[in-house]
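Researcher: Structure for this, please.
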Amino acid sequence: MRRATLLAALAALTLSGACAPSVPGSSSGTSGSQAPAASADRLTIGTTADVVNYNPLVGNSRTDSWVTDLMYPHLTQMDEAGKRIPYLATEWSYSEDGKTATATLRDDMKWTDGKPVTADDVAFTVNAVKKENFGVVAGLITALDKAEAVSPTEVRFHLTRPDGTFLDNVGFWLPVVPKHVFEKAPSVQKFANDSNWVSAGPFNLTKVERGQRYVMDRVADFGPGQPTIKQVVFRVFPDVNTEVLALRNGEIDLIGNVLPPATAAELKSDPKVKLQQIASLGWAHLQYNTKRKPMDDVRVRQALAHAVDYEAIRTIAMKGFAKSSNSSVLTPSQPAYMDPTSKEYTFDPELSKKLLAEAGVSNLTLGMIYDQADPNIARWAPMVRDSAKKAGITINLQGLERNTYVDKSLKSDFDIYAGSWAIMDNPPANLGLAFKSGGFINYGKVTDPKLDDLIDQSQRALSPAEAKAPIQQAARIIHDQVYDNVLYVETFNIAYSTGWTGFKPMPSELLSILNPLSLAAAKPAG
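Model: Predicted structure, token format:
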């Protein structure tokens, strides 16, 4: 998910094609052991999508995110472990009662027209998102009353209730835009921002050739540190196959999108290509519609959970580029919250049959929707169907076009939903969206007062240490009631030429090594 898209885009973004492609030239494209010579003049990145929106507050394609993240600063970034680190903000804290949050900004960042980036820009951006109620940030900052600039370098957020998730959410997800540019538009949400860009990142967009390339030039005197690279170019390709061929031929230096597991497995032996592996902050999962009979019975949901061969999915469909979450929504990628007592549902068709008998259910037939363009799910969806047959359960697969899939998901128009969350980086906030009664991405229509109360407790906590106990209890309920069936946490593979070094990875499909800190630090090897 990009950090400033619709809430529905928290579901994993897709790669091109319904199945993992073969690697072009895999039999002959590995001749020689040297990567093409890299130059600090230009880093060329392959993508399979054009920019759809240049407004960073509403963009919703991969390339939207990559381009605008290099132009518009966030208060914080994250390190390789997913921990928030300073970026535009140097410090952030809550008042003792938790109803006021404050961020202190660095004073050396400027917009490309020479004006300083100030607390006025931050307050304007946050207040505009709240007022117009759009994008992922609006769903994550519901506790906000208003933001105000106390000084050029201090912004204060007044909250209607204590919310320990607020600073993490607004810091990481909100791209800050220039007030003096965006305030001229009648609606910030509808502002196209498609020319004469005024930005404050390490690179600025200077040339667009739709369907071909997007050229970004280095910004001089960039506060956090001037990039080594003079120019970043995003080149548009029709699919992953042609991206791989271009990488091997030296036409591009990096493939932006995550590789399908089968492609990554084949590229392992190419001496001119390096694979950067990154653990996901999200997970792949199955959700069952708890408001449809017989899945309103926990025994039926448990039967479905015991009818999945998890290890086979990770080994065969994911080629080993996945690990178990122990059937918990608190995954190993979140060590501050992970519950070591959680155990993965066993693959046990006989137990499934027993549970169905106890629930008085026989000849169970269900439909399962999935995005037919997602190469990973397209590989393991048939495996879910086939393992369920061993438990006497019939699952009819419904591979759908992306927009239809998203529409059905949001309306909970399914028996079983197969999908994935791209970034679940803040458990108290994320579980509220996904499992609290009325949560925007509560696709399974979970309604559980005890769970709601625990999520509320975790959100009121002003530190991860305070939030840990209630959020772990919430995760146990989600596990035991099978409100979510987590299949695996993916290990992402990003491919780039061995002629480059210095990238700084982040645990996200979208940030990966294309984040601002990473591209500002990248340089030719040697």
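Researcher: Any notable elements?
Model: The first strand starts at residue 43 and ends at 47. The domain at 76-182 is CATH 3.90.76.10 (Dipeptide-binding Protein; domain 1).
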